[in-house]
Amino acid sequence: MKIAIVCYPTFGGSGVVATELGLELARRGHEIHFITYSQPVRLALLSPNVHYHEVNVPEYPLFHYQPYELALSSKLVDMVKLYKIEILHVHYAIPHAYAGYMAQQMLKDEGINLPMVTTLHGTDITLVGNHPFYKPAVTFSINKSDFVTSVSQSLKDDTIKLFNIKNEIEVIPNFIEINKNTKDSGEPCQRSVMAKEGERIITHISNFRKVKRIPDVIKIFYNIQKEIPAKLMMVGDGPEKEKAEKLCEELGIEDKVIFFGNSNEIDKILCLTDLFLLPSETESFGLAALEAMACSVPVISSNSGGLSEVNFEGISGYLSDVGNIEEMAQNALRILKDDDTLNKFKENALSVAKQFDIKNILPLYESLYQKAINKYI
């Protein structure tokens, strides 16, 4: 199949999922065309089956905000005609499904049918999409898609609750490529560069937005390090980072916390890690937790959104109510204090992650693509 993928090219979860999906599809022989405003951060153009087409938005003094949707829909039309693309897969309802629908209509006038699959990732529904300014456009875009998927049952339920949806929504969970796991690759984990012997290494990875509850991460670690020797690795960047650094100073633990900023070496960082913290206000799925588990790292998380569909209570880690810092810290210590217990949780985390291996999830998308193409035959 010739498949066009539209996504945000940033460090966020939806962009990572879209990129990894496209790369795996390419490895299986499909021709993949990424169409977005810059090259996705995890996209390596090393395959003859992978193509990237940049969406340029000309600047005109007339426009206060440049019309990206218009540029994207026009680019889609051009690329579909040039490369004979058979199906469009957009990640995020807005603006991508909206632009995709406009491209469909323009192509239809030229006798070309382009089926569109829309994948909902979370923020496009629960935060941005539910805003009164955007709600009608989001509802329209979802209902006009040929097929719609969501990354968790929780997100599907939220979508149906918040919008007047007439389309069916199929749950296809996010995935991980287990074979990329550094711990299984034979490459040694150099723990000594980050921690002393006997110290536990705890990690948090996110975009440092308020929804991630970064102060909770710091406070959970503060309680942990009072009981056992530990280091905290904070990976990512965003509006809450400066406040987090200041909180570490106030608590007197700045020498035990390392802020990395954004990184393309997540697997290497997780290779060093004993425990992952994700106390988010909400997560539509919890891809960061799954990435940790794929590296044999147990997870302490909130029980919000789709996290309970990924992190299995008492098996791959523990879940607590949002904001329950004390319980999260105690659960962390239950895992970390004893080597045998920690090793068991690490084994369990990897075992659960294997259920979400991309090789198990990819056929679900391939089947859906074929249904969408057959719809117009």
Rg over CA atoms: 22 Å
- How do the SSEs run, as a string of H and E? EHEEHEHEHHEHEEHEHEHEHEEHHH
Q: How many domain units?
A: 2
State the fourth-level CATH superfamily of the largest domain: Glycogen Phosphorylase B
* Biggest sheet layout: 7 strands, parallel
What is the CATH top level name of the largest domain? Alpha Beta
* CATH T-level fold name of the largest domain: Rossmann fold
Tell me the total number of β-strands: 13
Oligomer: single chain
Uncertain regions: pLDDT < 50 for 5+ in a row? none
β-strand amount: 15-25%
CA distance, first residue to last residue? 15 Å
Counting H and I runs of at least 4 residues, what is the number of helices?
A: 13
Mean pLDDT over all positions: 90
The CATH architecture term of the largest domain is 3-Layer(aba) Sandwich
Helix content: 40-55%
Structural class: alpha/beta
Q: Strand sequence of the main sheet, in spatial order? A: 3-2-1-4-5-6-7
